[in-house]
């Protein structure tokens, strides 16, 4: 309980001080998608259930096109939507993030107490929160922290099952594994846990029991239908590389990323700790159930990182953080310690080593996305009883998402919505989820202006400050040219300073349609 409280206080304080609660939903391209999807489910639970679910979702996506249910599984939104019913703000989602990370730390401590002294176990749990990727999760609305928690819980439950195999314990494990898969598809790596876990623990005869096979039932029944339904959708989020081609890129990327994410001292200590556990198991011809489960979970999640072509990102390594920290704490016991220094020296050194990647990082974990929400506030979302408006925002995924999320949370009426926000990247061009096969949908300024008329757009947000490496400049530049063409239908309403981070600054141009009688 102490670890839970301390980690929760730290996470909330860091989220507040690091800009999590004061920034827009533009710190990561996926942030707005998670926030708007959770808000959609909140609105469905709050009264939209009188409509068919698919019709509701399609209408919601048409108005706020950052709904990503299908690309992402539903559990994160199932858990956060009821919280938004209680308090419908973006801050609620960040509080959920911090509490999830706190539970991850507490669970890490609980597992560590099984083979470490209390002080090193506590140091491993709390210092895990100092890693850059954990700090990033405190500031951003993401599902990775929940995934890491469920995967670690699944590893603990499988060890629990191997100690006393019963059908009930197998089914409990299956429910948690299904929950992890329904959080992010990468949790399919947990399918490696049962077979590899029993092999490492020397309990391979469990495969002949009914209980072992029962573990797969909740996964098949609860997660299977969703995975089959969403397969065609989630394919859009994958690269075009084959698993073999992706493997050749992923191996060097994550090998280089491991010391960057965890730092060389922790990385080397973790290898030493893992070697110590394997050597101990070799003598007994089997690993302890907890160690076997942790090894098996790590192997399964690593295979997903290396073989499933979803794109390379070091934040996917957060699921490995608890195991790395516990292994590093175990590795510290190999150093020569006196009885007096071991008690406090080991925890202090572990915390110090956890700070190494933070101080070696070029960018301190902060969130400073601003201006997009202010532009929405200055524009004024339509109040109930007013005529519906249609806006169009053209920026990078972070900028478009930040405007859409701010508009969605600001609207008092979203179903049916009095505001529709169109994405310039979708209305003025076409591409898949990954931005491939990009083509312009309009070819000239007059054609673009007529297209805006056809859509009934009343306000345009054009963002010329998009980082060059992230933009498809054709449609955005064409939109800016159209707005600056002197066409009497449009005028500049205001310019809003925006930033994506402290070093990425620019100006968002907001135009409004001139009433028809004034444009004649």
Structure description:
- The protein folds into two domains: 322 residues, no CATH class; 148 residues, no CATH class.
- It is built from 24 helices and seven strands.
- The strands form two sheets. Strands 2-1-5-7-6 form a five-stranded mixed beta sheet, sandwiched between helices. Strands 3-4 form a two-stranded antiparallel ribbon.
- Strand 3 and strand 4 form a beta hairpin.
- It is elongated, with a radius of gyration of 25 Å.
- The model has no long low-confidence stretch (mean pLDDT 91).
Secondary-structure blueprint:
Blueprint: H1 2-17, H2 31-45, H3 53-63, H4 75-86, H5 90-112, H6 118-128, H7 132-139, H8 144-163, H9 167-181, H10 193-200, H11 210-214, H12 216-234, H13 243-262, H14 264-284, H15 289-307, H16 321-332, H17 339-354, H18 356-360, H19 372-379, E1 389-394, H20 397-410, E2 419-423, H21 424-427, E3 429-430, E4 439-440, H22 445-455, E5 459-462, H23 473-483, E6 490-501, E7 504-513, H24 516-519
Parallel strand pairs: 1-2, 1-5
Antiparallel strand pairs: 3-4, 5-7, 6-7
User: End-to-end distance, in Å?
Assistant: 70 Å
Note the main sheet.
5 strands, mixed
Q: What fraction of residues sit in β-strands?
A: 5-15%
As a percent range, the share of helical residues equals 55-70%
Oligomer: single chain
* Strand arrangement across the biggest beta sheet: 2-1-5-7-6
- The counted number of beta strands is 7
Tell me, what's the shape?
elongated
Radius of gyration: 25 Å
Structural class: alpha/beta
DSSP summary: helix tally: 24
Name the poorly predicted regions: none
Number of individual domains: 2
The average pLDDT value, as a whole number, equals 91
């Amino acid at each position: 309980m102490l670890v839970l409280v301390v980690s929760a206080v730290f996470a909330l304080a860091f989220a507040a001080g690091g800009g999590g609660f004061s920034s827009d939903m533009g710190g990561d391209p996926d942030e707005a998608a998670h926030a708007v999807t959770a808000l959609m489910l909140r609105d469905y639970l709050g009264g939209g259930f009188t409509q068919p679910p698919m019709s509701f979702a399609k209408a919601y996506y048409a108005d706020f096109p950052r709904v990503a249910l299908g690309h992402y599984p539903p559990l994160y939104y199932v858990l956060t939507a009821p919280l938004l019913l209680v308090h419908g703000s973006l801050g609620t989602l960040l509080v959920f993030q911090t509490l999830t990370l706190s539970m991850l730390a507490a669970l890490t401590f609980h597992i560590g107490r099984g083979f470490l002294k209390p002080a090193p176990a506590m140091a491993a749990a709390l210092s895990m929160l100092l890693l850059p990727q954990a700090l990033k999760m405190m500031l951003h609305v993401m599902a990775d922290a929940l995934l890491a928690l469920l995967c670690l819980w699944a590893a603990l439950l499988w060890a629990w099952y191997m100690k006393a195999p019963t059908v009930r314990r197998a089914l409990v494990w299956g429910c948690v594994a299904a929950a992890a898969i329904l959080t992010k598809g990468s949790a399919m790596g947990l399918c490696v846990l049962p077979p590899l876990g029993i092999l490492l623990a020397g309990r391979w005869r469990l495969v002949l029991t009914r209980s072992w096979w029962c573990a797969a039932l909740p996964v098949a029944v609860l997660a299977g239908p969703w995975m089959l339904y969403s397969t065609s959708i989630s394919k859009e989020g994958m690269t075009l590389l084959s698993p073999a081609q992706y493997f050749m890129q992923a191996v060097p990327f994550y090998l280089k990323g491991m010391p960057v994410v965890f730092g060389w001292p922790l990385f080397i200590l973790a290898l030493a700790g893992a070697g110590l556990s394997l050597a101990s198991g070799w003598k007994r011809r089997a690993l302890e159930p907890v160690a076997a489960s942790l090894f098996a979970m790590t192997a399964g999640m690593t295979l997903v990182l290396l073989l499933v072509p979803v794109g390379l990102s070091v934040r996917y390594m957060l699921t490995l953080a608890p195991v790395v920290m516990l292994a590093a704490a175990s590795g510290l016991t190999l150093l020569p310690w006196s009885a007096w220094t071991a008690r406090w020296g080991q925890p202090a050194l572990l915390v110090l080593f956890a700070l190494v990647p933070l101080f070696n990082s070029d960018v301190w974990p902060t969130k400073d996305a601003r201006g997009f929400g202010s532009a929405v506030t200055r524009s004024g979302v339509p109040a109930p009883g007013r005529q519906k408006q249609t806006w169009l925002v053209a920026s990078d995924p972070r900028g478009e998402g930040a405007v859409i999320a701010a508009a969605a949370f600001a609207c008092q009426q979203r179903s049916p919505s009095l505001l529709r926000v169109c994405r310039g990247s979708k209305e003025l061009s076409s591409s898949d989820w990954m931005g491939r096969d990009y083509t312009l949908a309009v070819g000239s300024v007059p054609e673009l202006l007529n297209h805006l008329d056809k859509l009934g757009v009343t306000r345009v947000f054009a963002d010329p400050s998009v980082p060059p490496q992230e933009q498809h400049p054709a449609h955005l530049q064409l939109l800016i040219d159209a707005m600056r063409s002197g066409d009497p239908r449009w005028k500049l309403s205001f310019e809003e300073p925006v930033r994506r981070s402290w070093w990425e600054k620019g100006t968002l141009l907001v135009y409004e349609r001139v009433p028809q009688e004034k444009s004649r």
